[in-house]
Fold this sequence. Notes:
GO biological process, one term: protein insertion into membrane
Subcellular location: Cell outer membrane
Largest sheet: 8 strands, antiparallel
Pfam families: Lipoprotein_18 (PF06804)
Function: Part of the outer membrane protein assembly complex, which is involved in assembly and insertion of beta-barrel proteins into the outer membrane.
Radius of gyration: 44 Å
Number of strands: 14
Distance between the termini: 156 Å
Number of domains: 2
Shape: elongated
Subunit structure: Part of the Bam complex.
Amino acid sequence: MKKLVLAVTALATLAACSSPESRRLANDSYSKHAADTIKFATLDTAGLTIIGAENTYQLPTENVKKGEAMDIRPPSKPMAIIQNSVAQFDGNRASIVYPAERQSIYNIQQVQRLLTEKGIAFKANGNQVQTEWTHSDRHDDAGNVQVRYIIEELGNQQANALVVAVSDMKRDDIVTTPTTKEKELYASDLLNQLVGELNTAYRTQQQQTALPTNTGPIQAAIINDVNNQTALAMTSNFNQSWTKLGNVLPELGFEITEETVGRGYRSLKYKALDATSWARFGTTQPELEDGEYSMQLSAYGNQSAVVISNKDKEALSGESATAVYQALMNLITK
């Protein structure tokens, strides 16, 4: 009987705890209990000073203006890739200075030839060339970069120089003002490229026109040099050729009026010989006017080549060149 009374009492208690109203309140948003939210009182520091976070190294919260993008590419500088040369960039132009006797290899005419082969349009004015817009061809360029260059040849009796400067520049068809670093980068690139290709052409020409070197009689042949000029190549070094030419040129009517051994240069004055004299040298009489001419001798180790030009610095060509060089060859090799 006691057990029955306890069971009835427990059942009544459970029924009271799970009334319909309490079940609804358990699953609601507790909005009715918002007033019962816990609130915190201000901390009593008991007289102690509480130090806040150190903000000396705190990053600024305001917007910081970004600077211009930096060009982190390694600088391109003019390279002294001609023997006994000096190369530099002066803040605006890239240049290479080399001995005057190498002017026949490195000159504005050779530059024009290379530009034509590359398909780069240009305008020539004396010893200066200005290119049209051309792509830089650098793989690390940001955008489509096009440049216009000014290329110039300078020189005197002691030295010669090729100079390259950036005239204008545009990126993605928008004209921009090149920075000093960009001027150095693109001017040096073109200068190094041109000189490097002239070096290659020079070595190739040496191989193609090389004649057997021997210690016996001098051999000679009429060739086209690196400037595409008609020349007389000889199997003798500079000193041998210089002396030999000095002996035979007067026999052909070329009087030596001035000479600069260091440059391999002679000024000549021509007075025509009759046809009989030229026939004696084994050739026909050339159609040359009396007057001033010049001779330029270039040495390639134990080989050399000579070019004769008129008063306008134009090399002899055609039948006149063939007749003069044939006569020289016959006199030198006999």
